[in-house]
Design goal:
By secondary structure, this protein is mostly helical. It has one domain. Helix 2 crosses helix 9, helix 7 packs antiparallel against helix 10 and helix 8 runs antiparallel to helix 9. It is globular, with a radius of gyration of 28 Å.
């Protein structure tokens, strides 16, 4: 055998000592922890970008309406859209701010006694005693869960500050960010991703239209109904319910609790009527008004919506719960365009090849 054909003998592998194995394991675990923490922070940042995109979509949608109705230039219409929205919010806070502050103080003053009265009424029935026992035994867990759900990575005010400024930047120059994203897409995939972005845009606009109208209708209906029933702090309760309408399923239940508790201080029958007012108003808005407005949004299964809210709430707190539905809609669109349609095309081609030829 030629010496050149001989293969060099493999080097013996160096056996790691026990201490070296321990340090390697610690390094791998530490690296995984760092990656998970970075991914979680990056996910929260992506959620803030999505929230800013929704606000920018609202500004552009309102600007489109102003431009279409008046025939003014795009710059003027967008200036009125952004400036007018902030002006309306400021005027509303100015006019109802003092009354709202008074009702908040009244609600905070009466709520402890209201809870005590509710506990007394519940303790009079066997079912009520079981409910009180359950809440007493799990009060710590409920508090920790609520604290975790309503916490965010940068703080509420910090998140709002970042989201508003991102929304203003997206509104001022949307093409810069859109074109910058399209540059990263390969030339063969540009048409596909343009279709995806158009579908996402239509879906988010439909969600925004339905959500804004639903919040206003809930506020108006509850204001009228609770005023007729003589419930105190009507503006606070109606505004609270309208704002929580942005959280499907869970928001309606949470909004109903303080109203029913206050109604219990009057009588049990009043509490039942107030609960019916909440249920009827939420039912009308959720099952009649919202589907008509959101006719272009994806029909998401209710169970899938609840699952996404629980997952997003656990990962990102209140912001995750609020954005769970639009994020789920975007995910469904991506799955449909990138996977489902391709599978259908392949099946159609296979079926076409298997069709027998006829004379």
């Amino acid at each position: 055998m030629d010496i050149a054909d001989q293969k060099p003998a493999p080097r013996p592998r160096k056996e790691l000592t026990y201490i070296e194995k321990v340090w390697h394991t610690v390094a791998i675990v530490a690296l995984l922890v760092v990656v998970i923490l970075i991914a979680r922070v990056a996910f929260n940042v992506l959620l803030m970008v999505l929230a800013a995109t929704l606000i920018s979509t609202y500004f552009h949608g309102l600007g489109n309406i102003i431009q279409r109705k008046t025939g003014w230039s795009r710059k003027v219409a967008m200036s009125i859209s952004v400036g007018g929205s902030f002006a309306i919010v400021g005027v509303l806070l100015w006019f109802i701010g003092a009354r709202l502050q008074m009702q908040v103080a009244q609600l905070s003053h009466t709520l402890p006694s209201t809870i005590s009265a509710a506990r007394e009424k519940l303790s009079e029935t066997p079912i009520g005693q079981q409910v009180l026992t359950y809440f007493d035994d799990n009060s710590g867990k409920i508090f920790i869960t609520a604290q975790h759900f309503f916490s965010t990575s940068f703080g509420v005010l910090g998140n709002i500050y970042i989201i508003v400024f991102l929304a203003l930047f997206f509104t001022a120059s949307p093409s810069v960010y859109k074109n910058g994203f399209m540059i990263l897409i390969p030339e063969k995939k540009k048409e596909l991703w343009q279709c995806i972005m158009n579908r996402v845009n239509v879906s988010l606009k439909g969600w925004l239209k339905g959500m804004l109208l639903s919040m206003v209708l809930i506020f108006v209906m509850l204001t009228i109904g609770l005023t007729i029933m003589g419930i105190p702090a009507v503006l606070v309760l109606a505004l609270f319910a309208g704002m929580l309408k942005i959280i499907p399923n869970f928001g309606s239940l949470v909004a109903m609790i303080p109203g029913v508790l206050l109604a219990l201080t009057v009588s049990t029958n009043t509490a039942v009527i107030v609960a019916l007012i909440y249920i009827v108003s939420q039912t009308i808005v959720s099952n009649i008004v919202t589907p008509i407005i959101q006719n272009k949004i994806i029909n998401l299964p209710p169970a899938l919506t609840i699952i996404s809210q629980v997952i997003m709430g656990t990962l990102s707190g209140a912001l995750g719960i609020i954005l769970a539905v639009p994020l789920l809609a975007i995910t469904v669109i991506l799955a449909d365009e990138l996977y489902v349609k391709k599978i259908n095309v392949v099946k159609r081609d296979v079926n076409a090849e298997n069709v027998p030829l006829t004379d």
